[in-house]
Design a protein that fits this description.
Length: 176
């Protein structure tokens, strides 16, 4: 009986390890393939914003991306009005995209985002870790959580809104 219990325990441990490996590999492949999608038309989806100062007020609502940039709109994903839309208070620089960590706020870690095509299952939650560039709280860490299908649109809106650094003056243009 002890031998049977040992075999069952070993088989269970191997099965759990294989499942954890497949999940980690799927997440890694998803993060490596993720590329920004340029915002052409307005798109609304579930998302969470966590950060200090003015970004704290953006934590409620749905994310909206479009040619105007990234904003938070009240209501549901199906609403199309522009009443109460709050644009992001400053530019953000993307640091990295990652799965939620243990030290992230609870509303970012435990929320599940539905699929945009209306399917029953949920998307994998991912976090865009950003740094505030200029604006009211320069250098602040801002976290934007969204589903794996929607985060490329957030990345596209962030890359379109981030100011490019000033070009270096050329040697021919300098006065001697």
């Amino acid at each position: 009986m002890a031998w049977t219990a040992g075999v069952v325990g070993a088989v269970s441990a191997v099965g759990a390890a294989c499942g954890a490996y497949r999940t980690a590999r799927r997440r890694k492949l998803l993060l490596e393939r993720m590329e920004p999608v340029a915002p052409v038309a307005e798109r609304r989806f579930g998302g969470t914003v966590c950060g200090p100062g003015p970004w704290e007020a953006l934590s409620m609502g749905v994310l909206r991306t479009g040619p105007q940039g990234l904003a938070v709109a009240p209501g549901s994903v199906a609403d199309t009005g522009s009443f109460g839309v709050r644009p992001f208070p400053g530019a953000l620089r993307l640091v990295r995209v990652r799965p939620p960590h243990r030290d992230d706020p609870l509303r970012l870690r435990f929320v599940r985002y539905g699929r945009t095509d209306g399917a029953e299952d949920t998307q994998m939650t991912l976090v865009a870790e950003c740094e505030a560039v200029g604006g009211p709280v320069s250098g602040a860490r801002v976290l934007i959580g969204a589903g794996s299908e929607d985060l490329p649109y957030v990345l596209g809106a962030l890359s379109a809104a981030t100011p490019s650094p000033l070009p270096e003056p050329s040697a021919a243009g300098r006065d001697s």
